[in-house]
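Pilot study result, target chain (233 residues):
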Amino acid sequence: MTEIHLMTAEHTYWKETISFAERCSWKAGSYLAKKMQENEFNEWERVCAVCVNGKVAGFSTFTGRDELSEQYDFTPFIGFVFIDEQYRGRRLSERMIQSIISYAKELGYNEVYIMSGEIGLYEKYGFIKLGDYETIYGSIDQLFVQSIERPNQDLELLSHLDKLHTTELGVVRIKRNLSLDTEDVVEWCKDKIRSEYAIITRRGKNWYVNVDDIVITVNAHSYTIITVHRGRQ
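Predicted structure:
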């Protein structure tokens, strides 16, 4: 079982996350552990922990500032995104990010930012690169932003789920691809598309819905579910 926790210092997993951060393979982990030990967070800032079967498997933060130079006024930031090596490939960092974005929306923010040296990673999660910016350390790093509201094309698919359907061959194909044991494949797909973790994009004539390590392909004109397969589009 996977759980996402947005924590303050009183949370059950706070101390365990400190211990995990101290011993993790990423050198920034020890810096985060120190910040947590000293509780250097304001009342709305959070440390996010992802737990698998009751054990901390990764962390991230949601704060007003990150490593961006103080000459810029962008806020708020997702930072310190890390997943332990044995748990990678399960899209856990994506789930943490989506949980933080949901929380940011509750606070009234219209966008969230990430600074990272990763190439092509955060774009998969819906972030757009704003450019290269100076950090508080005097170095240069990439700044990414994501609008909290889903793009119009995402809303278009979500608002027309009643039109979703597939063919008899589509049902057979989807069940075979996923070894799926369900009577109603269309309703199963609708539930996946409604998930807060679903990333919906349109390219050409199709929608592609990435969620829970599967890709649902939907024709954008007829709303036919063409196929569902494991992996990432």
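One observation from the pilot: Residues 92-107 form the longest helix (16 residues). A full batch analysis is planned for the follow-on phase.
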